[in-house]
Amino acid sequence: MKIADIVSEINRTLKLKDERRERLISYSREVVRRSGSTILAIHRGDSASAAENLEAARQALQIRGGRRDISPVQREQGQPGPASGALGVQ
Q1: Do 63 and 82 form a contact (C-beta atoms < 8 A)?
Q2: 6 to each of 3, 16, 20, 66, 77, how far by Cα in Å?
Q3: Cα separations (Å) of 89 from 21, 69, 81?
Q4: Per-residue model confidence as pLDDT tens digits over 29-45
Q5: What angle do CA 71, 81, 53 make, to 5 degrees?
Q6: What is the predicted pLDDT for the residue at 62?
Q7: How far apart are CA 16 and CA 86, in angstroms?
Q8: Rounded to an integer, what distance in angstroms lies between the CA atom of residue 52 and that of residue 82?
Q9: How far apart are the first and last CA of the chain?
Q10: Domain locations in the chain?
Q11: What is the pLDDT of residues 44-79, one digit of tens each?
Q12: Closest residue by Cα to residue 31 from 61, 52, 71, 65
């Protein structure tokens, strides 16, 4: 295998990891925003808005096509993660 091929493969892998990281950061920010909105709605006594924001936060926690109970690094290395639900995410 040529050096150029190796470098190209490394670049491709790093780009994929960066894209995943950016998506996770986006999901994380959405969860934080929606959680804050849920708390504010509860304080206002607006249970409908609180429930709506809470559900949106739960949806943002769903990582499509993968397990939530292990990190991407563990998944790529074939390592087992904690039991499902161990992170407190239902």
Answers
A1: no
A2: 5, 15, 21, 27, 20
A3: 19, 9, 14
A4: 999 999 999 999 999 99
A5: 60
A6: 78
A7: 27
A8: 29
A9: 45
A10: 3-63
A11: 999 999 999 999 998 888 765 455 555 655 566 665
A12: 61
What backbone torsions phi and psi does residue 50 show, to the nearest 5 degrees? -60, -45
In this structure, how many other beta carbons lie within 10 angstroms of the beta carbon of residue 57? Answer: 19
Residue indicated by tokens 């708390």: 39
Neighbour count for residue 87 (Cβ, 10 Å): 13
By three-state DSSP, how is residue 45 classified?
coil
Q: Please report the pLDDT score of residue 68 as a whole number.
A: 54
Does the predicted TM-score (pTM) go above 0.90?
no
What is residue 90's predicted lDDT score, i.e. its pLDDT? Answer: 37
- In the block, which residue shows the tokens 């499902």? 84
Burial class (CB in 10 A: 0-12, 13-18, 19+), 88: exposed
